[in-house]
């Protein structure tokens, strides 16, 4: 089973940005800033989590397909790794990108679909562990 590590770097513009390692290429992450682990508006607590495939079945009606769900987060469900570039698209989930932009006005990741495609190629429909520091 693959083991990935998310190292949070800083909080700016209401978002938390980080670096995801454990794949062939380092990815950048974007999450909501810490807001007491509230659903849909907060990043999740630091720790180690089991992450499972989400929406990989053919003709799945789910919005986010062929992504991964972070399990066993205290008081939370439905936390996904999925594509998205802007803070408004996080909704308590983790966005992955190939590039990172932090200015005085905005924090974002770029080329998110390409980053998720890389994860699909390297992880596929498999579980992995995620350690967040």
Overview of this protein structure:
Helices cover 8% and strands 43% of the residues. With 133 residues, the protein is mostly beta strands. The chain has one domain (2-132). An eight-stranded mixed barrel has the order 1-2-3-7-6-5-4-10. Strand 5 and strand 6 (79-82) form a beta hairpin. It is globular and about 40 Å long.
Give the topology, please.
Layout: E1 2-12, E2 15-21, E3 27-32, E4 47-54, E5 67-70, E6 79-82, E7 94-97, E8 99-102, E9 107-110, H1 112-122, E10 128-132
Parallel strand pairs: 1-10, 6-7
Antiparallel strand pairs: 1-2, 2-3, 3-7, 4-5, 4-10, 5-6, 8-9
What's the gist of this structure?
By secondary structure, the chain is mostly beta strands. 8% of the residues lie in helices and 43% in strands. It has an 8-stranded mixed barrel. Strands 8-9 form a two-stranded antiparallel sheet.
């Amino acid at each position: 089973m693959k083991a990935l590590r998310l190292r949070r770097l800083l909080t700016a513009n209401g978002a938390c940005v980080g670096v995801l390692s454990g794949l062939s290429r380092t990815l950048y992450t974007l999450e909501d800033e810490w807001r007491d682990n509230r659903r849909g508006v907060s990043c999740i607590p630091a720790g180690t989590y089991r992450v499972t495939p989400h929406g990989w079945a053919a003709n799945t009606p789910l919005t986010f397909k062929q992504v991964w769900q972070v399990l066993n987060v205290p008081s939370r469900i439905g936390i996904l790794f999925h594509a998205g570039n802007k803070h408004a698209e996080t909704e308590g989930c983790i966005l992955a990108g190939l590039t990172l932009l932090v200015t005085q006005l905005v924090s974002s990741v770029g080329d998110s679909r390409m980053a998720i495609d890389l994860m699909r190629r390297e992880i596929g429909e498999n579980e992995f562990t995620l350690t967040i520091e």
